[in-house]
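Q: How do we represent a protein-ligand complex in a form that can be generated token by token?
A: Start from the inputs.
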Amino acid sequence: MELSEFRARANQCADWVADYLEIVETYPVRSQVRPGDVLKALAASCPEQPEPMADVFADFQASILPGITHWQHPKFFAYFNANSSPPSVLAEFLTAGLAAQCMLWETSPAAAELEMRMMEWLRELLALPKDFVGSIQDSGSASNLCAILAGANHATRGRFAHDGAAGASGPLMIYASAEAHSSVEKGVRIAGIGAANLRKIPIRDDLGLDPEILRRAIAEDRDAGRVPACIVASFGGTGLGSIDPLRAIGEIARRENIHYHVDAAWAGSGLILPEVRPLAEGVELADSFVFNPHKWLFTNFDCSAFFMRETARLTGVLSLTPAYLQSTAAADIPEYRDWSIALGRRFRALKLWFVLRTYGAGGLRAKLREHIAWTQRLADRIRKDARFELVTEPRLALLAFRYRGAQGDAEDLDALNEELLKRINGSGRLYLTKTLYRGRVVIRFVIGQTYTTQRHVEEGWNDVVEIAATL
Ligand code: PLP
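Then emit the structure tokens for the protein with pyridoxal-5'-phosphate bound:
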């Protein structure tokens, strides 16, 4: 493609994205295609001859768009949002244009130094300890894996990189709440520790991990010659937004000299609000901490902020310096390739810089406060409606409910709620997802999309009520 055509097409794409965001509300939130529909519309092989961009773009609209679930739809209340914002999109466009591979300081000094500064800004915004040092990872999953590796390295006194888990005097053990995200177990598997050595600690009535059971599990493991390596606490579990007792867990971790990681992938953004910080009391005891600006801080996926205290715990595992990767950075500038699973790194700091500067801390706080207030109001509506049950109180901007039937006494509640969810998502009017609460199906409602307003939340709940009436 000639650059003159690129210029015209880039303008067309910019217009298209702006138009799309203006009318995104008119699309069904969850894609309504059936499995295989998109595949059928795609050519079986790569074309031999170049095709005009106009044809490709037309096919994008005709064949691809129907298979898109609209995460930027203001009635997307499913999973956790992967929200975006216009400044973030602009930065992503520039990042793609620069196409810099930022593995070393030298391969783009601005990327490394902007990443350093952005991590300092975020540390300050969230009021995290001053000795936390951050890096941008691609995902919360990779950050959790990094924490597990750091813990394994610490528990084997630096032998993990060379000897693997065999460097420990017994099986390495990892501890997390039964509500912890599945990426913790995946990290344990990838690290070679084995899922059998992940202890899923039961939760209390408030959904937080029970620290007394954790303490006993660690003691039993030590008595049996096993080696505790890492405790992962959740600040905002995925299913129900569970919050573990961070101080009590941190005190155990300190006493036992076990690496202590806090997974705050979603709820961590909430810590920009001073009124939320008491919920994370004790986070200062953590050895590592992750939150995803790509969830609730208006920054395009992927952008995961991972902080550590003793960075050598991680770099001891990940740092390798063949002759072709030697560093030319100053001693006080990190080579971020030593902090990530992959060597190659995208320039992710740019979108954070664009977002943080154009919203300002005050603008971000105002948005999150709205989301939390609307969640409280929605909870009030649900409490007053006898046909529904508010199963868990709002945790920041997440609540869980279930339908009890028109008379409020349906027998097979799980089947009823599965059917309700199917109809809701099949309607395309809003998008919700489910989880289990004490083994029973409940429906989650998460408010955090960039373009959501109170009207969308109210409309969304009206839709739920209307669809439930059809059951
Ligand atoms: N941790 C928690 C608590 C999450 O909710 C999620 C994803 O929703 C993750 C980790 C994984 O994050 P990512 O999708 O960035 O890998």
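Residues 117 and 365 are 20 Å apart (CA to CA). The chain has a mean pLDDT of 97.
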